[in-house]
Amino acid sequence: MRIEDYALIGDMHTAALVGRDGSVDWLCLPRFDSGACFAALLGGRSAGRWLLAPAGGGTCTGRRYRDGTLVLETTWDLPEGCVRVLDFMPPRGEAPDLVRIVEGVRGRVEMRTELLMRFEYGSVIPWVRHREGEMAVVAGPNAAWLQSPVELTHDSRLRGTTASFTVAAGDRAPFVLTWQQSWQGRPRRLEAGEELAATDRLWRRWLGRCGYRGRYGEAVGSSLLALKALTYAPTGGIVAAPTTSLPEQIGGPRNWDYRYSWLRDASFTLQALMGAGYAEEATAWRDWLLRAVAGDPADLQIMYTVDGSRHIPEWTVDWLPGYEGSRPVRIGNAASGQFQLDVYGEVIDCLYQAKEAGLRPDEEAWDLQRALMEYLEGAWREPDNGLWEVRGPRRDYVHSKIFAWVAADRMVRSVERQGQEGPARRWRALREEIHRDVCAHGYDPDRNTFTQFYGSKGLDAALLLIPRLGFLPLDDPRVAGTVDAVCRELTEDGLVLRYRPEVDDVDERRGGEGVFIACSFWLAHALALLGRRERSRRLFERLLSLRNDVGLLSEEYDVRTGRQTGNFPQAYSHISVVNAARALAPRAGTSD
């Protein structure tokens, strides 16, 4: 199954991936970064899955999300009849639930289900019991129940639950899978039809609040639904993706765990949410940010768990072969301990933008901004690992230095425009010092472009953010020169790479990767800001064509094989859809 053959369902605590063959191949319970109970995505059938499809097998003939919702409809149109499966996760109540409803549309279709639960990434096979018309499994702290009017059978060979049944036109066969901590007992039983109606209402009402009215409404709405699904409702944190170890290159080793919240997403996430009219979600994201980064500024991390925890140790799951043999499978992320200078500027920028946008004020936000700035004043000259989390020597990355400038600039603006108290003169002098330093050491006059790091001959896709940040006026020739250099030296088939590891031997990691989807949207955004709107629009619409059949994007795209790669779906990609669509609108991102 290709990465783009999956669809996403979720309850804003966790999420599942459902394949075109009707199999749920990835689900972590009870939250995004918990151990997976279905890990077939990374280990095949034996690592756990839930298949629900016609007995003859095969991929579906069509699927879609119900309009304005994250309720997935998968249809098989067969010679003997037509059947539809509805997949969704209801709003979280007492416990997480996954609901699947089979509907007969035409004729009679033989159906089959196969539920193989394997806790802790496929390593734990639970004890399975069938009683009182339902399946129950238990293993250590995990317990689950499957209720259905269909007769369920224990398959001792598979060590799971199976059922065969027939649906005719007008028939409906619901299945409800519920998880709970084993010592808490069985949660209340749900009625599938009621939960479907409630889930429909939740998503339709939420998307109905969208304020975007431009020509790309479908793409923006689809991306906003994906972002909402990647939100951890109790805290407002947003995971970068609901998966781990989907490879940047099929068969390669660049496989990382993205089930955490990155600080660098903060300002762009805020822009996307506020620009689309979601002040409540933007406030929740801002508040998560404030809680997560509270403490000594020297201890600021680049990422946190969805509840704001700092401890994210990295280890490998040796018993899983990985997606299409892409080893290793990693849990946790060692990059959480890297020093990345840019996150200070991104946090300060996010909090500045939040106040500019009129979000409910937070009394402690300015104190935090000042503490971060005081640390940055003494640390901005330090080399760092860069935003791409390069696992090699620290360098003076131009993007990082520019975000140190952003931090000083936003602090000055906070005093001048927002009435905050602080040493504006000192920050103004620092802003000018950083600007001179970057222009002197991070710019190549022979090629008329900024570079990846001081003294480098390489480029970095993050340089495409310069037009958005105010570092230079849009009509400064160095801005257009940098965008042109990226187009010339850092693209494959017109789409943007993050950087070229072989230039300056910048990265100790081996293995290749595809073009980076968010960076390609950054190029479309930059072109729009430079007034090259037709070229921007063509690129933007080409990027939209890379989405799968239900509108989802992964982290990267392999132009040689025409496949999505990397963790899926990727929040950064969908944030960039929303922001680039707004940049292409002629007036404030509201109409085009």
UniProtKB/TrEMBL annotation:
Keyword Transcription assigned: no
GH15-like domain boundaries: 215-581
Database matches in Pfam families: Glyco_hydro_15, TREH_N
InterPro entries: 6-hairpin_glycosidase_sf, 6hp_glycosidase-like_sf, GH15-like, Trehalase-like_N
Domain Trehalase-like N-terminal: 2-177
Record-level Gene Ontology MF annotations: hydrolase activity
Entry protein name: Glycoside hydrolase family 15 protein
Species whose genome carries this gene: Microbispora bryophytorum subsp. camponoti
